Automatic annotation (TrEMBL):
GO terms for molecular function: ABC-type transporter activity. One of its GO terms (cellular component) is membrane. This is ABC-2 type transport system permease protein. Keywords: Membrane, Transmembrane, Transmembrane helix.
Length: 271
């Protein structure tokens, strides 16, 4: 009983600390008009673009789902990855990370707490796009909702970790525009063209499949339609077998990201 009580107390304490760091970060985020615009206005603009794109009149569900899931991938890159790289670097250079680490907060609590507002924004944006896809485009009900949730949550974790790693190579918040380009371009181009590369050499397909965003998009499409476009749609149970490869790649990215953050994350300004 004592062990259970202690564990519960520690868990509540960590949750409270993460909430406190997150709320402080949220106040700073709310003062950034550019970030607020990209967080709330852009999703509505894109949702409106979906409704007027003519996809609602299209019988090609695979194309419509591909567009919506690509927008979900864009959320991970813009709202989570890019914004967090600039945030981690800014807090590091302002000595905020150093001061937080000097207190009672664990490393994981600090990194998670700072990421919390961006993650909340990303989740809200994803909900907007999913609802827009269902209502404005008339997409069918998902075949496997848990699989979609797993893909989305796993994607958030991966890009939070990638942001923390990319911050190591970023000297200032302004230079994040350059240091984030490799990941942004690889994912925006590679992961989006991957479904159309059926005739490409096996090595190229394997490289595109291994990109951090590709398994996320694959799991979202598989959970929604029961197929990634490579085969005929399957039912709820059948999607789990098809999900093994993208899920394995996603988990591998999470493990690699955790290892890299533990080994390389900088808590003090770069000299």
């Amino acid at each position: 009983m004592t062990t259970m009580t202690t564990t519960t107390t520690v868990t509540r304490g960590n949750t409270a600390r993460i909430r406190a760091v997150g709320l402080a970060e949220l106040k700073l985020f709310a003062r950034n008009r550019t970030a607020m615009f990209s967080a709330f206005a852009i999703p509505l603009i894109l949702a409106g673009a979906i409704s007027t794109s003519g996809m609602a009149d299209s019988d090609d569900l695979a194309t419509s789902v591909a567009v919506v899931t690509s927008l979900l991938g864009y959320v991970l890159l813009a709202a989570v990855y890019y914004n967090l790289v600039t945030t981690y670097v800014a807090r590091r250079e302002e000595l905020v990370l150093k001061r937080l680490r000097a207190g009672e907060l664990s490393d994981a609590t600090i990194i998670t707490g700072i990421a919390a507002p961006m993650v909340a924004v990303a989740v809200a944006q994803m909900i907007v796009f999913v609802v827009a896809g269902a209502i404005l485009v008339g997409l069918p009900a998902p075949v496997n909702v848990p699989l979609m949730v797993f893909g989305a949550v796993g994607g958030v974790i991966v890009f939070v970790l990638l942001a923390a790693v990319s911050a190591v190579f970023t000297r200032t918040a302004e230079s994040a525009q350059v240091t984030t380009l490799p990941v942004l371009l690889a994912c925006l181009i590679g992961s989006m063209i991957y479904p159309m590369m059926d005739d490409a050499p096996g090595v190229v397909v394997a490289l595109l499949r291994a990109l951090p965003l590709t398994p996320v998009v694959d799991l979202l499409r598989l959970g929604w339609l029961g197929t990634t476009g490579e085969s005929a749609p399957v039912g709820f149970a059948g999607t789990f077998a098809d999900a093994l490869l993208p899920a394995g790649i996603l988990i591998a990215w999470i493990v690699a990201g955790l290892w890299a953050v533990r080994r390389t994350f900088l808590w003090e300004p770069r000299r």
